[in-house]
Amino acid sequence: MFLSKPTPLALFIGTVLLSGCSSSDFVVPKQTLSDPAFKKSEGWELVWNDEFSGTEIDDSKWTLEENCWGGGNNEQQCYTARDKNAFVEGGVLYIVANKENFLGPNNVDGNYDDLKTLPYTSARLRSLDKGDWTYGRFEVRARMPVGQGTWPAIWMLPSDWVYGTWAASGEIDIVEAVNLKSKSDIHGDQNGQPETRTYGTLHYGGMWPNNKHSGQAYTVPDNKNPGDEFYTYSLEWEKDEMRWYVDDVHFATQTSDGWYNLYTKDGEKVIGVDDAPFEQRFHLLLNLAIGGSWAGNTNEKGIDSSVFPQALEVDYVRVYQCSTDPTTGKGCATVSEDAVHVKGNKPPITVELPSDYVTGNTISVFDGELSKYLQQNEYDPQGVIMGFDYVDVDTDDRGQVMQVTKTGETGNVYFATPELDLSSWTKDAKLVFDIKMEEVTKGDKIVVKIDSGWPNVSDYSVEIPKDNQWNTITIGLNDLVQNGNSFGVGKVDMSKIKNLLVLDPQGEMIFQLDNVRFER
């Protein structure tokens, strides 16, 4: 799923307290659509599939999880193994979410000393140790549920977790969607129209909260909605590259220069080589979550209980191996020049800091160029809503400055550093920067943060000047630190700084920055 969540390490056992409708209460006829004209390479050979042609879920291919843990994302469903939540009928797998209270373990161990009641039930199937692959083409033909609070996902998790817990060992999301047909929160002309986007995403980096992700949204043509028809969602995975498709339209590519993993070996932090963590076995998951950190906090927000029951309908699951080179999966690619190349994220900076880096009176972030001891990154959960660039300014003898563009609700830019001990910097120290607002569409504040790892962050709101002139902003570092984290419980640990500066615009705006530094 899309946001940070711990590793699912075990199956969970749930208990039914309240009854509801039976599977026959949610039978939707299979949509009559001809299969798409496959354009994939003839080199792909079918090695595993489920056409859901029987009368029961095939337990030689799938395990049904049972838990009320909420997925680690504050999701509001319990997963059950009951027929009313997952069944096969008419050649289709139905994963059905119902509104009903349910009680079960709220932990990864199935410990009944820790129970939780949630207001929805659903199902999650996985192929762990029944279908596990490294590289290949994965096709799932499905129709999505609709309504505020729905979060269907067709995705993959590592089978062996060789690099440690999530997300150091990776996650591959073939397709996800949230809140289809609710009011879209996309920037631009489609804002307020029925939500139609689906997403393909990778999760990687270090173990939570040092995880990273990158992905791309896709909208089917002609204002069609994935909740109305079956579409084929596909992933082609080869060494060093992954490609995403909807009905064989190649819309996104990610390559290993945009992902990495970070793990601990013999007590030392190690950055994985080659295409790690995506060179290990992964297995498939099919599920429908309700609410949670993504679905519950976007579009119209919350959960619309009136839309339930809802179902993720799966016509088939097919897995192919590249006959040209099964070892690397290379040689069977289907590539479009129109596909977006998602730039991803860089591994943590590993430069050696000079011995006097924190003992002097100034730490530079940007002065005509970014400090060589820092790495600029972006947090962009909604996909391509943040822009960061260096631009030349002809006036005021500025030369090159940083420019930040934000065109959506959620996202920031941040400057990572090797871990710093700035304990001695709070007294009389300050953060100083020059800022010029180029355009303000929405919002009047920028939240400035210093970060030692979520939730140990402190932040400070700055009212943005709107006079279209360069202004100098000064923030007492002690004021920033003492303010704590206004977005969660936590406060920065100045002895373990990981991101020296985070800029989180509270709205849609374009601004420029220069002479950014800490001084005392």
Keywords:
520 residues; mainly beta; eleven-stranded mixed beta sheet; 2 helices; globular; disordered N terminus
Provide a descriptive summary of the structure in words.
The chain is mainly beta. It contains two helices and 32 strands. Strands 1, 3, 4, 5, 6, 9, 14, 15, 16, 20 and 21 form an eleven-stranded mixed sheet that branches. Strands 2, 7, 8, 10, 11, 12, 13 and 19 form an eight-stranded antiparallel sheet that branches. Strands 22, 24, 25, 27, 30 and 32 form a six-stranded antiparallel sheet that branches. The longest helix has 7 residues. It is globular, with a radius of gyration of 24 Å. The N terminus is likely disordered.
| Major β-sheet profile | 11 strands, mixed
What general form does the structure show? globular
Q: How confident overall, as mean pLDDT?
A: 89
From the N-terminal CA to the C-terminal CA, the straight-line distance is: 44 Å
Low-confidence stretches: 1-38
Class from helix and strand fractions: mainly beta
By DSSP, the count of extended strands is 32
Oligomer: single chain
Radius of gyration: 24 Å
> Count of helical segments?
2
Strand content: 35-45%
Secondary structure blueprint with pairings:
Blueprint: E1 44-50, E2 63-64, E3 77-79, E4 86-89, E5 92-105, E6 115-122, E7 124-126, E8 132-133, E9 136-143, E10 150-158, E11 171-176, E12 198-205, E13 211-218, E14 231-238, E15 241-246, E16 249-255, E17 262-265, E18 268-271, E19 282-290, H1 292-295, E20 310-322, E21 340-341, E22 362-366, E23 375-379, E24 386-393, E25 399-406, E26 412-420, E27 430-442, E28 445-451, E29 457-463, E30 471-476, H2 477-483, E31 497-505, E32 508-519
Parallel strand pairs: 3-6, 16-21
Antiparallel strand pairs: 1-20, 2-7, 4-5, 5-6, 5-20, 7-19, 8-19, 9-14, 9-20, 10-11, 10-19, 11-12, 12-13, 14-15, 15-16, 17-18, 22-32, 23-26, 24-25, 25-32, 26-31, 27-30, 27-32, 28-29, 28-31
